Amino acid sequence: MPHPPQAPPAFTPGGPVFAPGFTEPRDRPRGPYARLFQTPGSRAFTAGNLLARLPMGMFSVSAVIMISGSRGSYALAGAVIAAGLAATALVAPWTARLTDRYGQARIAVPATVLAVLGSLALVVCVRLDAPSWTLFAAYAATATTPNTGGMSRARWAHLLRGDPAALHTANSFEQAADELCFMLGPVLAAVLCSALFPEAGTLTGAALLLTGVVLFAAQRATEPPATGRRAGGRSPLRAPGMPALLAVFLATGVVFGALEVSTLAHLDSGWAGALLGLQAVGSCAAGLLYGTVRAARDLPGRLMLCLAAMTALMFLPLLAARTGSVPLLALALLAAGAATAPTMVTGVTLVQRLTPRGGLNEGMTLAVTAILGGIAVGAATAGRLAEHPGPVYGYAVPAMAAAVACALAALAKARKAL
User: Which sequence ranges are marked TM in the entry (predicted)?
Assistant: First the structure.
């Protein structure tokens, strides 16, 4: 039944006065992020996930400060962190597979409890001056920490299936959130450890992680359904195109690891942290902006374009470092950071497309594992070049690694492997 026409507002010197029954239109266009968080339950699980994700940038810095301060050895601290990273690369895909099979709440909470106990054990071992091997064992126990960013992206993929534009915006938001957490986490850890006591960063991170995961897991309405045992037990690793994409992620990880170590070696001062923060700012801003761009229909093609842009921009830090100018290097890192978020968003969206339904958590974690492996390789390579022939040459590694990633993506697309 048609509604009777509403009376227009009468204008007065103080502004329009609306007639009884007149309501302002509610269908005003909103931005993509405002529309994204109109999704029921999205704000609640995002808040919990951000709280759980912040400690991801705190743990390694806190452990280095705590162990080096107690044992007087950065080499030992670095070795403990490297061992924990290796343990995570082995354990994380299995944790993610269990998460897909039995549900996020049933696996993430107990896995987090185990990881928190590992962090607490590390604090106790440091305080009691326990043998060095106990530090390795305790930090390795934190490898059960669930991939909180991957779980959040899996929820978005479940809630927004059939809406590629909204999923593109969600992935852009998640990438920006990653950058923000990894930018603020180390700063928070350093402040806590220096202002309070050396163990404060680890203890705070453990508390935030457990609280955030519990809050996140409590949002059962948005949780992807558990799949049980998948037919044939197939892993996303066997999905067509996934090995080629993981190779691209591995090379991209080399970019991240090499860029960080090269900057630390080149400056060897407090400016290094500030400049790496600028890189994260550039990536965070680019990620949010990229979320407003129309989603790509040809994802492999868009990934190639992003990697080509990354390759070009990664030469800027190398050129700036050769001048010896810190302001120029800061601008170069800001620009280089702007290329990483669009690349990661496109790559993650492609992971979601290639991963068989019911394996999203594992697919996301495999991508993260590949990146972590690349970070380790990039850090080691850039560190060696920084010593011989010199710090400036370490910046050649991220540029070359980005070019390799672009070539791998182009080859995979030409062979229709993506």
Answer: 50-67, 74-95, 107-126, 203-221, 242-259, 271-291, 303-322, 328-351, 363-386, 392-412
Compute the distance between CA of residue 173 and CA of residue 399 in angstroms, rounded to an integer.
26
Domains of the chain are: 42-227 (1.20.1250.20), 235-418 (1.20.1250.20)
Closest-CA residue to 295 (of 352, 256, 218): 352
- Whether 302 and 409 have beta carbons less than 8 Å apart is answered as no
Q: How far is CA 307 from CA 185, 303, 314, in A?
A: 27, 6, 10
Alpha-carbon Rg of the chain, whole angstroms? 23
pLDDT > 90 in the chain, percent = 21
Contact 155, 18 (CB under 8 A): no
Q: What is the pLDDT of residues 30-78, one digit of tens each?
A: 788 888 888 888 888 899 999 998 888 788 778 878 887 887 777 787 7
Share of the chain above pLDDT 70, in %: 90
Question: Can you tell me which residue has the tokens 């949780």?
Answer: 223
Strand partners, 282: none
Query: Is 115 within 8 Å of 142 (Cβ atoms)?
Result: yes
CA 260 – CA 267 distance, rounded (Å): 11
